[in-house]
Amino acid sequence: MEKSHESFTFTVGKLDAGMAILLGERAHLIEFPSILLPPGATTGSIVNIAVHQNHAEEKRRDAEFWALQDEILEEFGVRSPSPPKLQLRNVTQTSITLEWPSIDLATAKLRSLDIYRNGQRLAPIPSPLTNTSSKLSGLELNTEYTFQLILRTTAGTFPSNLIRVRTHTMADTSGISVCFGTVQDSVMLENAKMALRDMKAKWSDKIQIDTTHFVCTTPAATPSGASASGSSPIAPGVEYQRALQLSIPVVQPHWIFACHTERKLVSIAPYNLGATPPTPSASVRPHSMSQASLPRSPTSPAANHSVRQSMPPLARNAAASPPAPQASAFVNQPAASSTPPLAPTPEHAVAEAESADDPDAETVALERAVSSTVMEKRMSRTGTMNREFKFPTPVSSPTVGDTPNLPSIQRVITPSNIEVPPPPPVEKELGVSPPRSARSDDGDDELGDTVDIPLN
């Protein structure tokens, strides 16, 4: 290979369709594009290749590169997205309405726009590129909250300012935002607006995001309920239909007057469209109420007496009536036991007076008598063992002869605790008990004398 000042000499060793192998000095091999070889060059041809540096082209290339960098910096590096500016539009007892200007993304792309409540992510904002307000409902009454917007873009994250707000109490009516529909009485409409102005509330003719109530007296778009010609049927207004779609309560103007009178937010149930509004005096209970609606007090005899005079006699309930003395249950009734009746008491006189006025008193007295008899029988039963009983010592124990004379044994004998021995087999077959003389003649002397004990 001969080296010159401007070129190098190579021998073409192999020639392919797209690449040629050039042999240089000391068997150096280089691959060279065959399209750059001079025309007619084949295997074994000797070629000279000269290489020069193009400084002018390098300067032009560098100038183009830095111009592109400056353009990118001017377009994407100078302006950045702006943080949202959150504002409070309206606040009520249970809702908050927030608004903000349209978000400025500069040259970045939007990833998400989320709203945070008390530092926690609440929900994403729908259609963040066009939506500039949001209403949050379901809040607690008279409670403090903090709200913030977080904007995330391809250029970074940008939080908004923090808003701290407290929901209203029931006495605060400044959060009412009314949209008036068709009110047929113009005087009533003006009075309603004056009441809203006095309550520091606001109203409009179009439904907005912070509208809390839709007030009208008819759903029609016109006071007459039809068009000017009167030929078309009744058609509801556009704002009325929108209020129904947005679940905004539709009330009558009387609701505004009630809130103004009560100086607080009242229930909308009695003032819905189509309902009969209550009169201002309906909230006060009239004094001429029926005696049947008054509560009965067992401790006030005068009140009970007045109720008995104004109402028909009610059936007595022994379980619900106050317990009376047991002796009063036996007034004008035969004695249920051999125990002599007690002397009449003032309670007896009261029971007799009640039985004279009430036809059910006799039935109640019979029920009390039966229950008292059953209770006395249960009280006299001695079938249970006294666990504290101890046998007496031999010194203090009574003799056998004294045992039949104990009066306590005679008192505690009842039909429920007497064990009667079975009769002899002959008596079972005959079905009739033989006389005492017959039993003594048959040779049953070993049984001894029998004692008749009354069972009652």
From TrEMBL:
InterPro entries attached to this UniProt entry: BRCT_dom (IPR001357), BRCT_dom_sf (IPR036420), Chs5_N (IPR031673), CHS_Export/Cell_Fusion_Reg (IPR052827), Fn3_2 (IPR031669), FN3_dom (IPR003961), FN3_sf (IPR036116), Ig-like_fold (IPR013783)
Boundaries of every BRCT domain copy: 174-273
Residue span(s) of domain Fibronectin type-III: 80-173
CDD domains: Chs5_N (cd13945), FN3 (cd00063)
GO cellular component labels: exomer complex; trans-Golgi network
Ranges annotated as biased composition (Low complexity): 312-340
Matches recorded under Pfam families: BRCT, CHS5_N, fn3_2
Amino acid composition bias (Polar residues), ranges on this chain: 288-309, 394-417
BP GO terms, sorted: conjugation with cellular fusion; Golgi to plasma membrane transport
Any GO MF annotation of the entry: protein dimerization activity
Region (Disordered): 277-361, 387-456
PROSITE patterns in UniProt: BRCT, FN3
Protein name (record): Chitin biosynthesis protein
Organism from which the protein derives: Mycena rosella (Pink bonnet)
